[in-house]
Amino acid sequence: MTRRSINRRTFVTLAGAGTAAAFGIPAYLPRIGEAADTIKIGLVEPYTGTYAALAENETRGYEMAVDAWNKRGGVMGRKIELVKEDVQADPGVGAQKARKLVDQDKVVALAGTVSSAVSLSIGGVSNSLGTLFMDSGGHSDAVTGASCHWNVFRTCHSTWMETHATGNFLAKRFGKKWYLITPDYAFGHALEEGFKDVLGKIGGQIVGDALTPLGTTDFSSYLTKIDAVKPDAIIVLVQGEDYTNCLKQMAQFGLLKKYPVGGPQVELEPVLSLPPAARGGYWGVEWYYKSELTLGKNNKQAQQFVADTIKRYGQPPTARNCFGYVTGDRLIATMAEAKTTDSTKLARAIEGTRFTSIFNGSAYYRKEDHQLMWPMWIGKITEEGAGGDKFNLFDILDTEPADAIEQSVAEKEKVCKLGYP
Amino acid sequence: MLHDLAPQLFNGLVLGAFYAIVALGLSLIMNLTGTINMAHGSFMTLAGYLAYSLVLRGTSFWFALLAAPLIAVMVGVAVERTLVRPLYRREPFYSLLMTFGLSLIAEEAFRLIWGANGVPFSPPAALAGTVSLGFMSFPVFRIFIAVVLIIAIAALAFFLTRTRYGLRLRAAVQDTEMIAALGTNTQVLYAVNFGLGIFLAGIAGVLAAAMLGLSSTSGNALLMPAFVTVIIGGMGSLFGSVIGGLLIGLTISMTTLFIPAASEVSMYILMAIVLMVRPRGLFGEEGIFG
User: Fold this and answer.
1) What CATH class is the domain A33-157+294-375?
2) Total H helices, total E strands in chain A
3) A interface mutation test: which of B216, B256, B258, B267 has the most A CBs within 10 A?
4) How large is the ipTM?
5) What is the model's pTM?
6) What digits encode the pLDDT tens for the residues A226-259?
7) Which CATH class is domain A160-264?
8) Which of A218, A221, A277 is facing B128, going by the closest CB pair?
């Protein structure tokens, strides 16, 4: 031990410096003048856990929007900066991170989320802080319904829109006797209610309703019951990894070939993680990168967005990229037009304003509930990518206009009170 | 009723065999070294991803089914040697915390290597489709899984009871110092034992990846039931792990049939009942952790 060339003091100094370098402590030190220079937007996404893939794609959409604006010189002479926080699909963590972003990072607005539960919790916190919150990817009706707030806007479709866009199509195509596979939590029950409303109006019937706990791995117990009731169609409401597990097992049990399958919503991400034999059915689609029905004819902005995304990230944008881009672009555009970052003024400027973007036609965040009123589409999933493009798995068949699928203003006003200050 | 009950019974047994084989790996490692391996699920996921990558590179599913768990074993033995072994002489919660941390690191590493999105991995065409058993039809792949798991459990039983090395392993569980004094290299014994546990997890991981989904978090979903299996079967008893696994599989599938909403909670209720009536578990030994 006499040849020890590093003594304790040296070690502490070296280790301390090393740790500081490794964990980037300088990044936490205030950089003088920065706060005044950039406009910060706080991104709250589940970067770890089940929803990580969706969070990543939403973030890419935001990045595209922010970079495009910064290239044009930013807003009011200031650059836009995204500050990202991982909310882990946990409402508690979401609330805490939202507070941190507003109090410490001084963001002018919050945006993001995949899980509806997190959207609702951040909606509440941001309302108490008086900060704008753009819910780009949490679908629960309550966000623009019973739990709506003046400062909360939602880009993706509500569960009501999803069920009403797809319900009539599925009933007309396959028949009115359905077997539902429903995730047993708020989101699943909201979808279930929506479909009951659709079926009630046309005299349909739910012949079986399998309530599956979130995170179910083995669906066999629910699938073996289906033959006994012989439904016209199997309607799958589970999402994410549960969706992959469910569809894969339906294929193994031979149900995909035996019964028509469909659902209120499908995302490209989980379909990509399915083997070809488990791909199929008719589903609600929120946006798609390769269809004139979703993008519109000669929509330069959309074509540019698709091409740039492929170039930058090596894969085409999904509906999640679209949510991020549309939300980010709209928020920043409004700051530029209204020349303000004040929450109340921004909220007033966003609501009701018609705009065009990377989808077909124009849309607006409805004044009464802050839901983005844009169409939904019906798509058929194909087993292999068409035209040599392995991502091209949807065949878009039909458009459902926003007014026909969302609850009317009169209905919404009964439950939603925005409560401007 | 038979129409519903028979397929459910079979489903329950297949599911139970899964839990059993994961629990067996956990038990092996826990019995000999007192290590509660929280990273066990990560090794399952690792084997699943390795099999996926192998098949993607043109190897057959059958080769991958054997090769992927073996590669996972190599990683496992390296982990045992470098990270777990220094903690053997400490209290169990040191290795518990370490392996828990390892599982978090593994999850992020899988995400970096194979992407945040799940990947498509399916059984080979020969095992696709269903067989009709007259009153019900059942996926061929599930029957295959049942057969593989039964063979794996039988092979483990044979190894532990009928071979010299298995005998040493069992003896070491009872008295490691004596075994060392008698001339067995216990360090190698620890490594073999750890590797054996990981191999079982690897087989389960590849089969689960083909039957269910494969993403960075998928192994952990099967880990919790496996821990409950160990507790119900009784710590220290491998036979208990097998019985415990089958019992949980059947309990879950039967509750799903009659009270679907309680399917998730049913195994915990079963655990509570077993712990109340027999705190050491069905076949457990008293005071396994001294």
Assistant:
1) alpha beta
2) 18, 15
3) B256
4) 0.83
5) 0.84
6) 888 899 999 999 988 889 999 999 999 999 989 9
7) alpha beta
8) A277
